[in-house]
Write a structure and sequence with these properties.
Blueprint lengths: L1 E5 L6 H12 L3 E3 H10 L3 H12 L5 H12 L8 E4 L5 H13 L6 E6 L2 H15 L6 H24 L3 E5 L4 H12 L11
Parallel strand pairs: 1-3, 1-4, 2-3, 4-5
Helix pairs in contact: 1-8, 2-3, 4-5, 6-7
The chain binds BIS(adenosine)-5'-tetraphosphate.
């Protein structure tokens, strides 16, 4: 199984991804988590990524693409993977397409978690009080939502055109959302192809 988990910041991707990947016996790969661990270890990659993350901007594609290419080349990805938070730009979609084509594989589905913007901001402001993430201040949270709307939301139409998108209501309890994701993966695409 080769899955993407997409949705705006705070939609519940990180919350859902580990359990979802475990249900399919595949690794969950979250680019945000990898960047945060590199920041914590003060590696050169982490030093590069931190400034972008703290401003709510995306880390440059060449950095992110190289990191994901290396991770997908590891042995545990041979039988599948769940990518959480990647791709987020058109260039990242092109890189993932090339990586999959080179290994003669294809995506099985793209799960999109849908949550209203004010609910998203509320969740991330609450998380700020619990985890103290440097990108969870309200101005940066709102900037992250804008960046998602500008650069990532349009990509959903590309995957919809390929018949891969399963849109899931991301509101309600974590258990409710997980059940909807499972149901969606057993069903046909919920978004009609609209662009080619
Ligand atoms: P991420 O770590 O991916 O952060 P995110 O989009 O905010 O999602 P996250 O996983 O944290 O939120 P979740 O919905 O799980 O990215 C951080 C930064 O890294 C980016 O801004 C960017 O700078 C960089 N980056 C990452 N990938 C990149 C890429 N491909 N290219 C370039 N840059 C990249 O959870 C949010 C909160 O909601 C949690 O507190 C959770 O408890 C709560 N929640 C979850 N489900 C809920 C529910 N059903 N009800 C109520 N609350 C819920």
């Amino acid at each position: 199984m080769r899955l993407l988990l997409m949705g705006p910041p705070g939609a519940g991707k990180g919350t859902q991804s580990a359990a979802l990947a475990a249900r399919y016996g595949i690794p969950a790969i979250a680019t945000g988590d990898i960047f945060r661990s590199q920041v914590a270890e003060r590696t050169p990659l982490g030093v590069t990524a931190q400034g972008y993350m703290d401003r709510g901007e995306y880390v440059p594609d060449e950095v992110t693409n190289a990191m994901v290419a290396a991770r997908l080349g590891e042995a545990d990805c041979a039988r599948g993977f769940l990518l959480d938070g990647y791709p987020r730009t058109a260039e990242q979609v092109a890189e993932l397409d090339a990586l999959l084509a080179a290994s003669d594989h294809a995506l099985d589905a793209v799960v999109v978690l849908a949550v209203d913007t004010e609910e998203l901001v509320g969740r991330l402001v609450r998380r700020a009080g619990l985890e103290g993430r440097t990108d969870d201040t309200e101005p940066v949270i709102r900037r992250r939502q804008e960046v998602y709307a500008e650069q990532t939301a349009p990509l959903i139409a590309l995957y919809a055109a390929r018949g891969l998108v399963r849109e899931v209501d991301g509101t309600g309890t974590v258990v409710d959302v997980a059940a909807r994701v499972d149901a969606a993966l057993g069903a046909q695409s919920t978004i009609e192809a609209s662009v080619s």
